[in-house]
Design goal:
Elements (H helix, E strand, L loop, with lengths): L7 E8 L2 E9 L4 E3 L2 E2 L6 H13 L2 H4 L2 E8 L3 H20 L2 H10 L31
Parallel strand pairs: 3-5
Antiparallel strand pairs: 1-2, 2-5, 3-4
Length: about 140
């Protein structure tokens, strides 16, 4: 049996092309995103997005955990949603709480299940995936 100090969970979250890897272990309630404390993480909109799963769970449950998230790829909002998903999955696996699972699912299902949408690849004959070059007849 693992002692409390040895238990470590590593979980991942994905959003578009952003991938987040969260490490959850016993600690003092520190949450870091790419080695930046969540309290000073910028932009504020992304910070608020990452905080959502922590606000849905009671504070004493995660104040004894250290969560370290490494995020790469995508834009800042995709990274925030990937980090949020990794944190939510980590809290779910750590607590094994069905009440928390239903709370997260009712608030926003993408925290658990993810969003399968990806950008469509560009095709020939135009500047984008669907747009075509304009024609001129004169």
């Amino acid at each position: 049996m693992l002692s409390k100090s040895k238990k470590v969970l590593v979980l991942s979250g994905k959003r578009k092309t952003a991938i987040a890897r969260a490490t959850v272990r016993f600690g003092k309630g520190r949450v870091r995103i790419n080695n930046v404390p969540l309290e000073i993480f910028e932009p504020k909109l992304a910070r608020d997005k990452i905080l959502e799963p922590l606000l849905l769970i009671d504070e004493k449950a995660w104040k004894q955990l250290d969560i370290n998230v490494k995020v790469s790829g995508g834009g800042f909002m995709g990274q925030a949603e990937a980090a949020r998903m990794a944190i939510a999955k980590g809290l779910l696996k750590w607590t094994k709480s069905t009440r928390l699972r239903t709370a997260l699912r009712d608030y926003d299902r993408t925290m658990i299940a993810g969003d399968p949408r990806r950008s469509e690849p560009k095709k020939f004959g135009g500047p984008g995936a669907r747009a075509r070059d304009q024609k001129s007849y004169r």
